[in-house]
């Protein structure tokens, strides 16, 4: 990206968020940025990250820093991926296809939500190596057909989300009288929309997870794991990756922060599967903390949405370039030339978060300080 283009989007991720705040309608900003009920889980995600401080090593050769990794057998240029978001088209006309192209151009991948328009096949044509994220919207035969479609479309893996038995009470949306499912037509889901949670999702059990494993040879990811016991069950069910997530604070209020959930899950998995995580990660240093604690890669949710709203595909490519630069800089200053050099020994718990609050990684971006623009 040219210096002029970079200047138009800003030199920091914070500037991208400010651009997004000015371009999104209030109800859409709240849909993207908000969470369940009191939004304590959003705050917990940030607090968990901010409680961890680095203990850097020195006098190590970091003249060449390598931030590449491998996720589900595929190389990534950086240990970051775009998390699944079903309503990207509400944030920018480019929507999920733009996100897929930005991920591919940046050397990483995107998890494509089943809810995202214009549908799995159309989005898969935009970029290779994507992961299809699935909600249960039908019976076992429906799932088998969907998996076959994912294989035929060239998806690299399938991700089943399991933390959404019912829809979380997102009070910003309730106050705004706003429904993302009503705002997007999702014609690809067929008559009736299919966006609303049904008994198929509420009745999801480990039996269906086992059945899914028998339907495909594609790598499988289970998203929404918080408990070490569930992480162990996921490995026993043949999952290739366990995805630690509290849905960005959008489902259950007052859960632990994602980074707090990560170490016991890593211990339970014990190297038998890859471990992914999302939830409040906004900076390169945030991402490195998760990698120190055993994550293979980190998903971007709200930050992805803000960058897309700020500048479409170019905004997302710019964000990923900024994060790559932040990761390389922090690794060098930590004394780590390669990602395997990262370990829990580089972290210590701080007595309190440095700047408490859901958006405290960015100066001045907390509630009431200019982010609730009407657009």
TrEMBL record:
Keyword Lyase appears in the UniProt entry: no
SUPFAM superfamilies on file: FMN-linked oxidoreductases
Gene3D superfamilies, sorted: Aldolase class I
Family recorded in the similarity comment: Belongs to the FMN-dependent alpha-hydroxy acid dehydrogenase family.
Cofactor: FMN
Keyword Oxidoreductase: yes
Keywords from the named record: Flavoprotein, FMN, Oxidoreductase
FMN hydroxy acid dehydrogenase domain boundaries: 5-352
Taxonomic source organism: Roseomonas populi
Name of the protein in its database record: Alpha-hydroxy-acid oxidizing protein
Database matches in InterPro entries: Aldolase_TIM, Alpha-hydoxy_acid_DH_FMN, FMN-dep_DH, FMN_HAD, FMN_hydac_DH_AS
